[in-house]
Design goal:
Distance between the termini: 31 Å
Number of strands: 7
Oligomer: single chain
Shape: globular
Number of helices: 3
Largest sheet: 4 strands, antiparallel
Helix content: 25-40%
Strand content: 5-15%
Structural class: alpha+beta
Strand order of the largest sheet: 1-5-6-2
Length: about 200
């Protein structure tokens, strides 16, 4: 079963497609590869919001998922170049670009929580994927709320001191959930009573 939950920064929607193959206009979240102005392919004059990003959390499961060492490859967090907008004439582009990356990092935290949820409850997948669908929607709703909170508290990233506070929290969460990085293919050692609940 292949489903795709689409997160649109500022405009959220749900979308379902049939393929999870990485396309030329998609970027997987990475520790080392940060977003650049060139990644935003739609050019548009917008003095109010000079950058708008489209992120996608997607998941793919099949009948053999219960035998997985982990689910780090089954859930992806992607940035979509062809659906992301930039006003190249903006004088505050750098600040907005930093905030788009911070939001991408936030989405990665919830991608990792989804991977963790599936790993700790993979026995439930014997009965089908209804559990997976439900838990992923719950995590997605949590992401929406936290993202909206960060938008409000930082004024969409323009209040630098508050943004630095959020960046520190996000960095700590990414470090704490490193076992659920999509690049980690090793067996995961964690139990339900050790789960890494976010501090948000």
């Amino acid at each position: 079963m292949k489903k795709l939950l689409a997160l649109f920064f500022f405009i959220f929607a749900l979308s379902f497609i049939q393929s999870q193959m990485l396309k030329g206009d998609e970027l997987l979240w990475s520790h080392s590869r940060k977003l650049t102005a060139e990644d935003f392919q739609i050019k548009k004059v917008d003095s109010f919001t000079p950058l708008k990003s489209t992120f996608i959390l997607s998941w793919e499961l099949n009948g053999f998922g219960v035998f997985n060492k982990n689910f780090n490859k089954n859930i992806t967090n992607k940035f979509i170049k062809s659906a992301s907008i930039i006003d190249e004439n903006s004088t505050i582009l750098a600040d907005y670009l930093e905030y788009q990356q911070t939001s991408f990092d936030m989405a990665e935290i919830y991608a990792r929580k989804m991977r963790e949820d599936l790993f700790l409850n993979k026995s439930k997948l014997w009965k089908g994927f209804d559990f997976a669908s439900e838990i992923l929607k719950i995590r997605l709703n949590e992401y929406y709320k936290v993202q909206a909170m960060m938008d409000s508290q930082t004024n969409s990233g323009t209040e630098k001191a508050k943004l630095e506070y959020w960046k520190e929290i996000i960095a700590a969460e990414l470090l704490k959930t490193e076992q659920f990085n999509s690049e980690n293919e090793a067996k995961i050692n964690i139990k339900n009573n050790e789960r890494t609940n976010p501090v948000f």
